Amino acid sequence: MEAELTFTQFEKMAEKYPGRLAIIYLGEKFTYARLQNLIDRFATALNRLGVRKGDKVMLYITNSAQWVIAFFGIQKIGAVVVPVAPIYTSFEIEYMIKDSGAETIICLDTNFGYVQDVFSKTSLKRAIVTNLVDILPIWKRTVGFLFDKIPNGIVKKSPNVYFFKDLIKQSPEKLNVEIDPWKDLSYILYTGGTTGFPKGVPGNHMGMISYVRDVMEDVAGGYIEEGKDTYIAINPLFHIMALGLFVAIGLNYGNTTIIMPVPQVDSILRAIEKYRVRWMLGVPALYRMILENDRLDQYDMGSLKYCYCGGDVLPIEVFKRWKELFGLSIYQVYGSTEAGHVTYSRLNKEPELMSIGLPLKTRECKVVDPDTLEPVPMGETGELVVTSDYTVKHYWNKPEETSRSYVDINGKIYYRMGDYVRQGEKGDIYYVERSADVIKHKAYRVSASEIEAVLQDHPTVIGACVIGVPDPKVGERIKAIVVLKEDARGVDASELTRWCRERLAPYKIPQYIEFRDMLPKSKVGKLLRREIRDEEKRKTTKEKR
Fold first, then answer.
1. Is the dihedral of CA 227, 231, 236, 242 positive or negative?
2. pLDDT for 169 beyond 60
3. Strand partners, 308
4. Which of 376, 494, 498, 512 sits most deeply, having the most CB atoms within 10 A of its CB?
5. How far is it, in rounded angstroms, from Cα 2 to Cα 20?
6. Residues 6+ apart with CB under 8 A from 415
7. DSSP sequence for 72-130
């Protein structure tokens, strides 16, 4: 594969389609030429502030035009982007600033207070502050503030604080920075770990380019219309899945992307209708929210053609309801921060239920015994391990974590995905369970997500979490924590047990069912099953005392 930088293909599209709309953000339209110019201006400003090749720049803002400008501007000067969730607290960003060594942070005025809290305790030298509407026309900003539609925070001026809107006023200069796509880092992404501190995952330019090209050539190729298509970016761009699709389907094909700052369902549906969106990526919760929106019939969704889902297991009932309502299949994308994008459902055939697709050509996948790392027979369940010639194979400053997650198999370093899968004869990979969340009951390996899916099919259940409770006689007993709809009446544990018994093998039936008002979720919306399991362990320990 020819060496290339992350932003090279975008620049080619900007030259080819200068007047084509690159992004639409809060109704404001940015052509490829305008976006390119803003990126060059921001890169110039960073350089004048003293940011140099290899320096770490934390990107602590929500999906926005500024996010896109900053992401590419940082990389143009050879610096390293450290994208993080804009809802992180000062405690969380303090750790990540110290761990990454970031000296510059780009933040919203609404989270500037957190930056102030940690400034003197970290390596930070400067903060660049923006507001959601900073680069919109003045009349739009004025109307927004008058009607209290735009959140804003108080920012005290100081020698170390700069404003995004001022920096992009500077005239762009030609910057001659030599960047090696193989050796130089493009980003450090932090995994949303559920215990302990998050791990930094460094990525070079070729690691990202490799899977982006795979998606362009083997997934979207033949289906996407270069320079004519429209994609909607809903998921947070600090996540590898959302970032990769935005680059592959949107900017690298000269297409238009609608940037959504927050995943508000009516706004999403309105944007799909207004801009005739054809390509979409969502998580299972988003697809469910759309299906349950009581104003759904008021929007024209007829332009939608290709819908992808990732980040979690797609419930079968959501897949079927989407297909029935819109006549569209939901295709799968699967990967991780460490391995990048790994598998995709192909568009030339109907996606199989529970299949997460075929591996991309630059990703080598094996299904192995988790204890011996020996390959399991075709069709049998094992742990998925992945390698690629293009990726960095270690965590940032975490040698012990690296040795646990990256393993040598026949001279190649593979990343342990932590998922149980099986591979079919045609190469499709079928998700079975997150390995840490397999319940071992009476020598059976029980899939927690399978039971959760059955419980969530009950008309009164809106959320379920299934865990294993240690038991010396059977290994683990199965416990379900369930959230019911507010108007649910007459539903108790015996009713849900009966429901499961009618749909599951006897060894999969929960022995305990507990009702709660809500379930813990991570900042990217994933169920924190481990958190509940740890809670149960603490309860068991107390009872033994």
1. negative
2. yes
3. 281, 331
4. 376
5. 27
6. 336, 338, 339, 385, 386, 387, 393, 405, 406
7. HHHHHTT-EEEE--TT--HHHHHHHHHHHT--EEEEEGGGHHHHHHHHTTSS--EEEEE
Distance separating alpha carbons of residues 513 and 478, to the nearest angstrom: 9
pLDDT at residue 533 in the model:
78
Beta strands in 159-245 (DSSP E): 161-163, 185-190, 200-204, 230-233
The CA-atom distances, in angstroms, between 129 and each of 59, 160, 208, 271, 371 are: 11, 11, 28, 28, 49
Q: Which band of pLDDT confidence, cut at 50, 70 and 90, is reported for residue 492?
A: very high
Band (pLDDT 50/70/90 cuts) for residue 193 is very low
Lowest mean pLDDT among 35-39, 83-87, 102-106, 146-150: 146-150
Model confidence band, residue 504 (pLDDT cutoffs 50, 70, 90): confident
Question: Where residue 449 falls among pLDDT bands split at 50, 70, 90?
Answer: confident
pLDDT at position 503 over 80:
yes
Q: Which of 132, 155, 156 is nearest to 144 (CA)?
A: 132
Domains 8-262 and 329-434 equal at CATH topology level = no
Q: What gap in Å lies between CA 4 and CA 24, rounded to an integer?
A: 27
Give the pair of three-digit tokens for residue 134: 């900073």
**Higher pLDDT pick, 64 / 507:** 64
Name the pLDDT band for 140 (thresholds 50, 70, 90). low
Q: Where are the domains of the chain?
A: 8-262, 329-434, 444-544
- Look up the CATH architecture of domain 444-544: 2-Layer Sandwich (3.30)
Q: Which residues pair with 333 in a beta bridge?
A: 344
| pLDDT reading at 146 higher than 80 | no
Tokens representing residue 442 in the block: 């009476």
Q: Pick 8-262's CATH classification: 3.40.50.360, 3.30.420.300, 3.40.50.980, 3.40.30.10.
A: 3.40.50.980
The distance of Cα 416 from the centroid of its chain, to the nearest Å, equals: 19
Stretch 400-408: mean pLDDT, rounded?
92
Buried b (16+ CB within 10 A) or exposed e, 145-180: eeeeebeeeebeeeeebbbbeebbeeebeeeeeebe
Per-residue pLDDT tens digits for 312-321: 778 888 999 9
Q: Which helix (DSSP H) or strand (DSSP E) does residue 29 occupy?
A: strand 28-31
- Cα separation of 116 and 493, whole Å? 49
**Under a CB-based contact definition with an 8 Å cutoff, are residues 345 and 428 in contact?**
no
Strand 429-434 to 355-359 pairing? antiparallel
β-sheet bridge partners, residue 521: 527
